[in-house]
């Protein structure tokens, strides 16, 4: 929210010597965030000049320039010759002249320079060149702006270009601060300066006779779409009159583009009071106004010229001809105020915040009006805002206030909040005096009445965010300097720290990062197709959690797998030239069970621990959300180097990473041949721990990789990390190292070609006993010397004892014990 200081001073006593930084400091102390200082970013001399005469000179490029003689006053050199390309002025016009030495926004310094055969001693300025708007086809004629000033007058002060605004960030729960009224009140709270509330007027004229009906057939959350609807009529306006420079300057600093006098007045009042205003050309209305929901098939051309298909939940402003506006969002083009408008119907209403927010998002049509309505507008300010618009249209547009209008409004009652006297000091940790608590709440607009153990507090109409004693306590701390609250770190109880599961997840992530993978967290939103393909082994449709209000309608489901996010990250990196990728992610997946309804409405009590029964209800209301770890490899694991070819990243690298995960988790992860819908047949492995399946690894099918715009081979792996860690139990991850040497032996066994190598390896481990330190598959041979339908698997074995140096005989005995188990179980034979 941008706040011009001259505007702020109309409602609160800001010292004349106060700088923007001083105002920032005051507003930051009551909870706002400092953004930037906004000004017109120009310096003088910029003065009022009078065009005495000019000569039109056609140029060879087809353009005609005017060689002008302009009087800028004796103090600024008298009459100066200036070249001007505009043609919208005549001799005798007063204009804005930027003299040599001036600097315009850009920055654009002004100097005497030779152009078109003349020395132009300055420049006659347009509105755009001064930062007052987008109009640059013609220069400013002060008579059109309603300004009468002597030659030589400082134009910077005359046009309000010396004003400055501070821009503060307003959080969504403080919609009242999206106005000069609201921020002036906050400045007063911070500094103690006297505040004059522009919302308290007793001269609001009564109006009646204009038919207004609220017919809300689809109330949202039980709330009626419009609770207040005030209309006023102003007749005989001159819509062609210029907007006064002071209003243009203030709107510009506030971030609002000047459009026309009538529209500028409605925008001005919206910024001033926080109440969005809409004006209709009364002559274009058919009958009265009805506030209703859209009917099927209705359309509306909005002020931006777009025809919009309406939805059943859209709240509309309609007359007898049909829709004429999206309530609280944007008006319709058919009834907009134009240069031919003579009679205006002014509308000031209060609309349901949820309805307006949904409409704005549904149509992708955010506006200054919807921004305020969806955060909450003071329901009592509508009559005051309408009267303010009427007054300005009478004053600036020459109109006459009419008695025709309407005033439809509900009784606004805020529920009183019980606030015990000891609650605020106990919650905040500051010993606030009772009188100070009461004074602070009254300063923010609350009505405070004494009660048995404290007070009964009724929040003001403009503060919908004050709903309970906790929010009242926060207000006391905010206004009375939250920095007074002591910073005391609690002493952690001894023996506490990360849980075993947290430690395990950190070990796994740190291990993957240490071996060269890069962690890339991604959004958990996917399409149904992605869930089906990567969230199950078969690729058949699986249950998914659909978001009620998805950010992107193409990805409305919560993920069942981490792979889609890694594929998207890989595609983004490849599109930017990074071709060698080793990525991983640790995150939650969402695995709803078929037929189970999730999301039941459970509201735990505040400030106390929920019961075991309620915790069970909460747990049952959400789907299982195990944490997974996933890997993606593409390109090369090591680049081409002198004397060494590039090494492609494939299944071997992925399996090494999986073994590293197992070491970090404290388990041995076995791999066996498997199949998945998204992975290449024959290049897919099932991962298991002690016979329990925990994940998979494999190479993406070419068509799946192509659909993700990933060229070449892409290897992925995904493990249920929570399950892996649970299977690890209390196993010791780090073992002490033996000081005795190892004995190494190899063994080649001939087995059936269909036998998974992991099963043969397990048999060897089981038979070899505790002396076997490690076992690694080093060769898979099928060919001459091996019977058809068989294969020869070679394992490298390493034996070691903790208390002695092993003999070759002991190592051989252990090896043969393993071979015996393999022979008994699978008929394995030592290859000759």
UniProtKB/TrEMBL annotation:
InterPro entries: aa-tRNA-synth_II/BPL/LPL, B3/B4_tRNA-bd, DNA-bd_dom_put_sf, Fdx_antiC-bd, Fdx_antiC-bd_sf, NA-bd_OB-fold, Phe-tRNA-ligase_IIc_bsu, Phe-tRNA-ligase_IIc_bsu_bact. It is an enzyme of class 6 (ligase). Its cofactor is Mg(2+). It catalyses: tRNA(Phe) + L-phenylalanine + ATP = L-phenylalanyl-tRNA(Phe) + AMP + diphosphate + H(+). Residues 40-156 form the TRNA-binding domain. It comes from the Bacteria. Its main location: cytoplasm. One of its GO terms (biological process) is phenylalanyl-tRNA aminoacylation. Binds 2 magnesium ions per tetramer. Residues 738-831 form the FDX-ACB domain. This is Phenylalanine--tRNA ligase beta subunit. It comes from Microbacterium sediminis.
């Amino acid at each position: 929210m941008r706040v011009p200081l001259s505007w702020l001073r109309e409602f609160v006593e800001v010292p004349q010597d106060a700088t923007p930084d001083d105002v920032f400091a005051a507003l930051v102390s009551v909870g706002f965030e400092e953004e930037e200082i906004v000004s017109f970013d120009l310096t003088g001399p910029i003065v009022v000049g009078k065009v005495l005469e000019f000569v039109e000179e056609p140029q060879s490029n087809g353009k005609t320039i005017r060689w002008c003689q302009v009087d800028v006053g004796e103090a600024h050199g008298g009459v100066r010759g200036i070249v001007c390309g505009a043609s919208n002025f005549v001799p005798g016009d007063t204009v804005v002249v930027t003299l040599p030495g001036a600097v315009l926004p850009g920055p654009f310094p002004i100097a005497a320079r030779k152009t078109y055969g003349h020395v132009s001693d300055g420049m006659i300025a347009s509105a755009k060149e001064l930062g007052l708007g987008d109009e640059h086809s013609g220069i400013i004629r002060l008579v059109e702006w309603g300004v009468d000033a002597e030659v030589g007058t400082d134009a910077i002060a005359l046009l309000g270009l010396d004003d400055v605004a501070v821009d503060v960030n307003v959080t969504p729960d403080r919609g009242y601060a999206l106005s000069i009224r609201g921020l002036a009140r906050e400045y007063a709270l911070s500094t103690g300066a006297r505040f004059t509330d522009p919302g308290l007027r007793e001269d609001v004229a009564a109006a009646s006779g204009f038919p207004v009906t609220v017919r809300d057939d689809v109330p949202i959350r039980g709330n009626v779409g419009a609770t207040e609807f005030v209309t006023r009529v102003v007749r005989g306006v001159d819509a062609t009159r210029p907007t006064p420079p002071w209003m243009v300057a203030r709107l510009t600093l506030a971030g609002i583009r000047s459009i026309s006098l009538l529209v500028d007045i409605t925008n001005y009042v919206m910024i001033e009071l926080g109440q969005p205003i809409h004006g209709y050309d009364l002559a274009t209305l058919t009958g009265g106004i009805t506030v209703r929901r859209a009917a099927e098939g209705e359309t509306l051309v909005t002020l931006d010229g777009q025809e919009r298909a309406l939805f059943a939940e859209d709240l509309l402003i309609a007359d007898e001809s049909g829709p004429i506006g999206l309530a609280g969002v944007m008006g319709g083009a058919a009834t907009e105020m134009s240069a031919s408008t003579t009679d205006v119907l002014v509308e000031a209403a209060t609309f349901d915040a949820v309805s307006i927010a949904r409409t704005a998002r549904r149509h992708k049509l955010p506006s200054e009006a919807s921004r305020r309505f969806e955060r909450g507008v003071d329901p009592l300010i509508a009559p005051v805002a309408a009267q303010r618009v009427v007054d300005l249209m009478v004053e600036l547009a020459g109109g006459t206030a009419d008695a025709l209008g309407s005033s439809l409004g509900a009784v606004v009652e805020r529920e009183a909040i019980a606030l015990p006297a000891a609650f605020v000091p106990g919650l905040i940790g500051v010993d606030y005096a009772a009188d100070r608590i009461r004074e602070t709440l009254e300063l923010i607009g609350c009505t405070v009445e004494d009660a048995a153990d404290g007070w009964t507090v009724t929040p003001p109409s403009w503060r919908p965010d004050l709903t309970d004693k906790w929010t009242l306590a926060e207000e006391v701390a905010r206004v009375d300097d939250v920095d007074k609250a002591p910073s005391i770190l609690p002493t952690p109880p001894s023996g506490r720290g990360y849980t075993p599961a947290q430690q395990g997840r950190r070990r796994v992530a740190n291990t993957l990062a240490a071996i060269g993978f890069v962690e890339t967290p991604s959004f958990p939103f996917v399409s149904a197709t992605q869930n089906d393909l990567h969230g199950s082994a078969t690729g058949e449709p699986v249950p998914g959690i659909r978001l009620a209000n998805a950010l992107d309608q193409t990805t409305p489901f919560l993920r069942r797998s981490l792979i889609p996010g890694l594929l998207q990250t890989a595609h983004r990196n490849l599109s930017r030239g990074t071709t060698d990728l080793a990525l991983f992610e640790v995150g939650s997946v969402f695995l709803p069970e078929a037929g189970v309804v999730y999301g039941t409405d459970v509201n735990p009590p505040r400030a106390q621990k929920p019961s075991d029964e309620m915790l069970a209800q909460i747990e049952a209301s959400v789907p299982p959300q195990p944490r997974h770890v996933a890997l993606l490899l593409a390109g090369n694991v090591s680049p081409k180097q002198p004397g060494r070819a590039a090494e492609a990243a494939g299944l071997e690298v992925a399996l090494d990473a999986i073994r590293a995960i197992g070491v970090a988790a404290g388990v041995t992860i076995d791999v066996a041949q498997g199949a998945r819908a998204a992975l290449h047949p024959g290049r897919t492995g099932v991962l298991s721990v002690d016979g329990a399946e925990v994940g998979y690894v494999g190479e993406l099918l070419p068509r799946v990789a192509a659909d993700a715009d990933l060229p070449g081979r892409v290897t992925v792996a995904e493990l249920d990390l929570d399950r892996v860690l649970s299977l690890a139990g209390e196993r010791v991850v780090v073992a002490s190292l033996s000081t005795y040497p190892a004995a190494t032996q190899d063994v080649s066994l001939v087995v059936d070609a269909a036998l998974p190598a992991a099963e043969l390896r397990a048999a060897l481990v089981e038979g070899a006993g505790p002396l076997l330190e490690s076992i690694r598959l080093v060769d898979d041979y099928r060919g001459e010397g091996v019977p058809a339908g068989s294969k020869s698997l070679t394992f490298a074995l390493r034996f070691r004892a903790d208390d002695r140096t092993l003999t070759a005989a002991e190592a051989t005995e252990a090896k043969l014990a393993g071979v015996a188990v393999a022979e008994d179980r699978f008929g394995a034979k030592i290859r000759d």
